[in-house]
Amino acid sequence: MVQLHIKQGSESQFLLDTTVDIAVEDLTKQVAAIYNGRLKIDRICTEICELADHGTFLPINMQGLTDEQIEELKLKDEWAEKCVPSGGFEFKKDEMGRRNGQVPNQAMKNVLKRTVEEAKALISKKQVQANVCVTMEMVKDALDQLRGAVMIVYPMGLPPHDPIREEFEGKEDLSGLQAGKLVTEEAEAQLWWAGKELQRSKKLSDYRGQGAPAREPIISEDEQKKMMMYYYRRQEELKKLDENDDESYLDSDWSDRHALKRQFQGVKDIRWGPRK
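Above: the chain's sequence. Below: its structure in token form.
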């Protein structure tokens, strides 16, 4: 077994246990599924908090309208009477005009928000610090917990146009939304390590034990020999100076502080980096 630390850029996402025999193709799909599953949970949790504070989603043709406009257009939320929270509701107007304002009582609101906290903790990035690996089963458990809490508070279900219900049924439409840009399509997902993309046609074991490519030396072996010879000659000259206390050394080539620079002028600093 090996433990992988999955990151997006430099940001930690989650830890994953796997085997070296797994195909990179299957590993990539697994990572993408968990990553996208965590995004789904986050979207659902956000909407459930809105559900607890402002009630169910209004029909699309009523969203953003004022009470006067709704009355003038003779529009009606037919689902408001069907999707009533357990224990009744209080009214709290949604200033954003997205939800109907029929808020669950405090006990039912606590059920929703407590479950949201538990689901978020299950797939949190903090699990990396706790050295806990995230699995697809954990993602499914979090979704089941959220689904169960919504069923407790809304036994009659949510309107078909409510984003929470759409998420649970896999019918969410994220096109044109920022949330949609965060989702990674399995076919387009890539795994990188040590500056190299892991090829889907290989196994993880093909990369086992391979460290980052060795850094290229700044100077060549031949240039290094020349430098060593240069300093050797300089040491010999210094020895002679100790024996002959005169100023004849000023005419020596080695006394020119710019000699070494001219000798190796044009040598470039070559460093390793991922191929563009």
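Strands lie at 2-8, 11-18, 89-91, 102-104, 192-193, 196-197.
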